[in-house]
Amino acid sequence: MPAPTHVPHTTIQRLPVYLRCLLQAQAARVRVISSGDIAEMCGTNPAQVRKDLSYLGELGTRGIGYDVDDLVGHISEVLGITERRKVALVGFGKLGAALYGYSGFAERGFEFVAIVDVDPAKVGTQTDGITIRHLDDACEVVRASGAEIAIISTPADGAQAAADVVVEAGVKAILNLAPVRLVVPPDVAVRQVCLSTDLQILSFYLAQHDGGER
Predict the structure, then answer these.
(1) Which pTM value belongs to this model?
(2) Is residue 55 a contact partner of residue 115, using CB atoms and an 8 Å limit?
(3) What residues contact residue 162 under an 8 Å CB cut-off, 6+ apart?
(4) Phi, psi angles (nearest 5°) of residue 96
(5) Where are the alpha helices (DSSP H) in 80-194?
(6) Chain segment 12-43, per-residue pLDDT in tens
(7) 49 with 105: CB under 8 angstroms?
(8) Most exposed residue of 46, 99, 143, 199, measured as fewest CB within 10 angstroms of its CB?
(9) Are 200 and 192 in contact (CB under 8 A)?
């Protein structure tokens, strides 16, 4: 089931956070949870939780709360993760290798099916049964793997070329970790993650705090 089209983008951004908290509650064998409990776990407020969940349909019982298992299933369905999603990784440097080794992706239903790099020392080697292929072969490899999502963890100067190849292979969703804006067709979704930008924002808050103390 695709995400309802009327759900605001800001709500979609919060749904994975709610899901993570609900999975924690599920692991603790909590059967029913209130909006206040969810809000406390997620660092928001009950009114925001109720408003966000209201976009997804008639959920929960007034005065009682939400069935945890039902809500986990519903949010997972809205996010499209009830089935495993195949992922291609482009760029197998230190960051790419660390992402590949992170068990949380598999736990959330994401499976790496293709790895691409340009380093001659890596191309042709295997990791967990996946042969690392050269970018020149990426279109064919990614298409054959059935990957729906591509994670780009290349240096900035190689990111656009990587994006062009995975788009040509039919990928419609890209997580871009390179510090550069990608140019893609309108029907391709790109999520930009820039760690240096986030660190600069944190540095701003530290500077504000330091300035207030002086």
Answers:
(1) 0.76
(2) no
(3) 90, 91, 116, 135, 138, 150, 152, 154, 178
(4) -60, -45
(5) 94-100, 104-107, 138-145, 156-168
(6) 889 999 999 999 999 999 999 999 999 999 99
(7) no
(8) 199
(9) no
The residues, any chain, with a CB within 8 Å of residue 60's CB and separated by 6 or more, are 35, 53, 66, 67, 71
Virtual CA dihedral for 14, 176, 150, 94, nearest 10 degrees? -110
- Whether the CB-CB separation of 141 and 116 falls below 8 Å is answered with yes
Determine whether 115 is exposed, middle or buried from the number of CB atoms within 10 Å of its CB (0-12, 13-18, 19+): buried
Write the single-letter amino acid at 126: Q
Helices then strands (H, E): number in the chain? 9, 9
Please state the length of the chain.
214
